Each structure stands twice: as structure tokens, then as C-alpha cells.
């Protein structure tokens, strides 16, 4: 049964997603994509203009999917619940969309039109910053530092997630609980003006 143009494009995106996850951008070839799709190379070029075009579409779709999940999770709730939701969104994505996570966390090609994981994480950190800003105001802390704390929190979850991608132990809910334990109990006992306890050596 002959595929429609839309069906063929979707097939190529799905195949590209798998191969980019397996081999990275540089290790992926149009020849392999075409072979797995059982089409000629010109068909791939017709739909995407080349490997860069296909890669950009794959990355854009993954970023949109993940950002939409974060936006839904962070829509409402107590600050601690929001931290739990954010941690679980990323861990769920790693567990259920492993290929997508691998594509996003690999280096993008120079000049790529697609977004990258760093810009997505900055979007998420921006949303977390607004949450922290409210909490800081309520606690009497300096709100201009909310951006710093949001980057630290999101970075902590992302780095742990990248480690968990390979380890897969302990279970996802346990990982999320420990992340939130560290983040929340640290945040709930913030010093108004923290200083380093060790004097710098001269």
C-alpha cells in the first residue's frame, strides 16, 4: 500500500529519530535513513532537503513535546509539588522516550536550524524562576537570586537524569524523591546571606 506524502514524512522522522539516537548526527547518513525506510535517497532530500533538515525536524518535535509536558506539570500546585512534577516529567521522558532524550542531549551540528537541549533547559529554568520568585518573596529572601537558584535546581535534575539514563537504578520515583528531598530541604533552610565557611587561601 503506497504511503501518502504525510505518512512518508512521518516514517522518515521516526526512522531518523532512532538513527540519530543510535549514532549521533555525524554518524548518521542519508543512505542509512533511506535504506531503513526502503526508499531512494532523493525521497529523503525531497522531504527535508538533507540530513540537517531532518535532524532539525526531529529535534524541534522532541523539544516541543518535552516543553509541553513541563508546562502542563508546572501549571499549578504547591512549590514542593511543582519540584516533584518537574523531576518526574524529565525522568518519565528519559524512561519512555529514551531515543528522544539521546537526540536532545547530543551536540547539535554547527549551524543547525533546530533548537538544542540547552535552550530548552533555559526555558524550563525560566518557568522555575517564577515559582522560586514567589517563594522567595514569601520567605523574605532576595528575589534577584531566583534565576541563579532555578539554574542550579534544573541543572541538578538534568545531570542526575543523564546519569540515570544509563544506571536505571534506583527506581524513577525513588530518584525523584531524593532530588526533591535535597532541593526542598535545602531551600526550606536557606540562609538569607550565605557565605563560604572556608577562608580563601592567599
Automatic annotation (TrEMBL):
Q: Which segments of the protein form a coiled coil according to its record?
A: none
For biological process, the GO terms are: negative regulation of DNA-templated transcription
Q: Which InterPro entries match?
A: DNA-bd_HTH_TetR-type_CS, Homeodomain-like_sf, HTH-type_TetR-like_transc_reg, HTH_TetR, Tet_transcr_reg_TetR-rel_C_sf, TetR_C_32
Please report the stretch or stretches of sequence annotated as the HTH tetR-type domain: 6-66
Q: From the Swiss-Prot or TrEMBL record, what is one GO molecular function term?
A: transcription cis-regulatory region binding
Sorted UniProt keywords: DNA-binding, Transcription, Transcription regulation
Give one Pfam family: TetR_C_32
Give the DNA-binding residues: 29-48
In Swiss-Prot or TrEMBL terms, this protein is called TetR family transcriptional regulator
Give the organism the record lists: Epidermidibacterium keratini
Amino acid at each position: 500500500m503506497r504511503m501518502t506524502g504525510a505518512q512518508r514524512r512521518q516514517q522518515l522522522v521516526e526512522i531518523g529519530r532512532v538513527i540519530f539516537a543510535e549514532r549521533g548526527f555525524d554518524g548518521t547518513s542519508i543512505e542509512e535513513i533511506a535504506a531503513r525506510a526502503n526508499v531512494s535517497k532523493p525521497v529523503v532530500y525531497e522531504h527535508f532537503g538533507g540530513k540537517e533538515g531532518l535532524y532539525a525536524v526531529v529535534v524541534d518535535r522532541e523539544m516541543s513535546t518535552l516543553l509541553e509536558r513541563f508546562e502542563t506539570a508546572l501549571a499549578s500546585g504547591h512549590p514542593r509539588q511543582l519540584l516533584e512534577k518537574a523531576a518526574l516529567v524529565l525522568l518519565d521522558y528519559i524512561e519512555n522516550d529514551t531515543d528522544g532524550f539521546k537526540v536532545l542531549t547530543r551536540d547539535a551540528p554547527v549551524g543547525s536550524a533546530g533548537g538544542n537541549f540547552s535552550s530548552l533547559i533555559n526555558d524550563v529554568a525560566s518557568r522555575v524562576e517564577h515559582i522560586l520568585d514567589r517563594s522567595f518573596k514569601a520567605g523574605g529572601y532576595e528575589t534577584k537570586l531566583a534565576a541563579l537558584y532555578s539554574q542550579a535546581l534544573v541543572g541538578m535534575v538534568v545531570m542526575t537524569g543523564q546519569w540515570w539514563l544509563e544506571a536505571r537504578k534506583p527506581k524513577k520515583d525513588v530518584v525523584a524523591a531524593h532530588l526533591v528531598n535535597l532541593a526542598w530541604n535545602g531551600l526550606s533552610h536557606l540562609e538569607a546571606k550565605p557565605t563560604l565557611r572556608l577562608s580563601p587561601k592567599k
